[in-house]
Each structure stands twice: as structure tokens, then as C-alpha cells.
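Example with several molecule types.
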Amino acid sequence: MTTLPASTEKKLGLVIDLDTCVGCHACVVSCKGWNTENYGAPLSDQDPYGADPSGTFLNRVHSYEVQPSEGPAQLIHFPKSCLHCDDAPCVTVCPTGASYKRVEDGIVLVNESDCIGCGLCAWACPYGAREMDQAAGVMKKCTLCVDRIYNENLPEEDRQPACVRTCPAGARHFGDLSDPDSEVSQLVAERGGMDLMPEQGTKPVNKYLPPRPKDTWEEVDILAPLLEPVAPEADGLLGWLDRTLGKVGGK
Amino acid sequence: MHPAPSIIVFTVLSGLGFGLLAFLGLGMPTVFGGVAFGYFTIAYLLAVIGLASSAFHLGNPQRALKAFTQWRSSWLSREACLSVATLVVMGIYGGGLVFFNTKLSTLGLLGSILALATVFATSMIYGQLKTVPRWNSWTTPALFVTLSLAGGALLAGQVLMTLAFLVLAGVLQVIAWTLGDGRFAEAGSTQGTATGLERIGTVRHFESPHTGTNYLLREMVHQVGRKHAQTLRVIALALMVVLPVVLLWLGVTYVTVALAALSHIVGTLASRWLFFAEAEHVVGLYYGKR
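Resulting C-alpha cells for the full complex:
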């Protein structure tokens, strides 16, 4: 069914810390690895070693330069995958019922054996979270590693999405965002977690933690006022050079 | 977006076919026997060629039957159901006219309504997408349905109806372009809202996730078709509306009607090309592109 559930028992999702992400793309690689070897059609590449390589990825890391009104620009690495929206427009447009949102945990999934590869769900998504696999002709998207998080064959510490497990900076957090006491909800509350493109009305479950304000530099050198200023005019050889070059250059 | 030829051909031809069926269902013209067979063949060919060409852009067309299941939520599924319902109802109605010299008026009326509903559903596949602000407007269904009626009337030989709907389509087309140009800004999505980083300062895309391209950029951020947009708008409007109106005004003969139909179809293809080529998807904001 491609109608959305009125509510879900849990809201499993990611909290991504833009302050901590170092842009190493390890999450991209681990995502591609896990999701190529496990659930569903592999994430194919086209012409991977040739002149025009492209491929299917469920997670991509952009980098943005942000220029504040004062001070130097900041470079912010920005991982982006499916936000498992509460009001997911990709689900309702699906003509076959292949796209659905799970009632038990809110994960948005594609049943690949029902997907006709029309691409409309990718069009409905404002975030570019869905990509059509060019080899399989079916829509691929983040599954929140549904085949890891409930997998009792894995050691307990591995029962989280591959991207979260692999992040060396601890910039990715996984949990239930419907539970206000969960670690992820606490983080969101503490750090002012934000939605991407709220004006699209998708109500994303995943949240982004904005970069913390940068330190400001204040003059703290207590000796500075006591010191004589360095000679503003050059003398000696440098002074002669300065005057001579000034005459030659007419300045 | 990338203006896929299969989608352009589909929306234009099926629009014409269903427009013609809408008029045939209303008994405009009321025809029987061989003449009716001719009219219905043209209408069915246009509609079915359109539907078939839409299957070409599917990744897995062998599962297309599943697209009939989600009419409760999906406009694409509704379009599939409505188009088949139209073809079945109009098939029975047409069969009565061709083989039994019988006009089942109620069935014809139902077929007409279904035909227009099909075109409306097609237009809403695009009109529903908030992610493409230019499409997400009342002008999309209004223009699709009016163009279908204009083309249908032209093929059905309804001269006055043709003139009325052509002029209306021309007006709607100009409104759609004019309003459409401002829709992206109106919708309010920027690189700042897309990344949430506007709270810090001005956002600039510094580095792409990959050195190569990807599905999203190929499909949704394709900009090639926009280069000659203004020229194409003039050509589209001239061929789609102005020339057919002038031709029909000069005189209604087989030659002028045929030329008017040809001109209208070419113009509508150009207009539909622009509809797709000028569409700007908000996902482009993540890539610093429109």
C-alpha cells in the first residue's frame, strides 16, 4: 500500500552532526559495500574505471562553503541520505505499491520485486535520496540497514546502520526519534537539530545538528600596551632602498 | 529536467487521442459504420501509441500491470486505471456505432468524462510534484486538458470548438509561462533552506560528492534544453495556436484542417519539450545548480 501510515510505533532515523563530520566519505564507502553485498539488487556502477564513471549511491557527502557576515568562510561537509520522512511524498506517488513506510519503525523501503522503475518517487523526493539503479532498473534508497539493525547473527555493536558503525568522527547517530528520552532525541534537543527544506512539508525524521558557533578572537596580551611600537619607518640600508625605489617608481 | 522523447510523445499523442475520444463520446460528430471506424481507429492509435511509448522509460516494464493497484494514492496509477477504463467503455460505444448503427449515448457520455479524467490524471502526475515548483500549479492541469480538448476538437472536425479551445489554450500557455518563471522563487527553497546553513551565512557549493555525474543530475538537473527557451516559446505558440487558427479562419477544407492539425501537433510537441526542459527540481540546490 502506498498510502502513508497515520503514525508509526517508532521513528528510527539518523542524527548527523555537521560540526563533527570531517568529510572523509567512509560512510559512503561502507554504505555502498554493505548494500551491494546484502539486501536487494547490488548498487551497480557504470564505466567505473573508464572516462565517464557513474554509479548508484544511497549516501553522498557534499561540501559547502558558508560565508558568515563577519570572519572567514567555513567549510561544512554534508552527508545526505534518505531522511525517512513522516510525510514521505515518494511513497504516495508510487503506482505499484513498491514504496512503503513501515508502521513498526517508520523506515521507508522499496519492495524491489514490485518496482517498475518509473522513477516518479525520485522526482517526488526533494532531497535526491532515491537513485534508479541503471543495471537492475529498480529504485534504490537507504534502508537504514534494516538487514543489520535487527540482525541477531551480528554482534550487538554491529546492529546499527553501516554508515553509523563506520564513522571515525562519531558524526552519525542512530536511534528512535519518537522517544524523547533516547540519546538521539536528547542530542537534537541539546544542539538544536534541524530539518532540511522544511518548506517542502515532508517532516523528515533524520535531523542535522548545525555547526557550533566558532570561537571569537579577543586581545588578551597584557604586555602589548607596555611595549614600544616597532619603528614604523625603515632606516639604514632598508630605508635607503625604500627611498631609492620610491624615487625610481615615482611613489 | 531531461526531456525524454518517449514522455513528450506520450503526453502529446495520448492527449490528442483522449481529446478525440471525448468528442466522439459526445456524438460530435455522430458517425456510424465505416466513418465511425475511421475516427475510432485514429483515436485509439494515438492513445495506445502514447501509452506504449510511456512504457519505454520504465526500468522493468514486465511488471507494468502492478501499476493498476494504487489508485487510492497515486496519480500515475489513477492514470493507468482511467485510461484502460476509457478505452474499454469507448470500445463498447464505438462497437455499437460501427457494427450495429446504435448510439449508446449514456455510455458515450461516460466515456467522454473518463477520457478527460485520464488527461487530468496525466497532468496531475506532474502537477502534484512540489519538488518542481514550475509544475506544481493549477496551470499544469488546465493547460493539459485544454490542449487535449483543442486537439480533439480539431481532429473531430468541430471548427468552432477548435477555435475556442485553441485561443483558450494560447492564453493559458502564456499564463503558465509567465507564472512559471516566478514559481521557483515563490516556493522559497534555496541552498540555505536545503542545507539549513543559512543561519550561518551565504552558502556556496564547494565540492560535489563525486567527480562524475549521477542519476539525479542526468534526470533532474539537465539544462541543455533551456538554451533556446525564448525562441522555442514563440515557435510553440505560433505553431500550436496562431497558425491553426489562421488556417481554419481562411477556410475549412481537408487541406487547411490537415495542415492545421499538423501544425498544432508540432507546436504542442515544442510546448511539451519546454514543459520538461524548463522544469527545475529543488534537488539541484544541493549541487549548486538549477
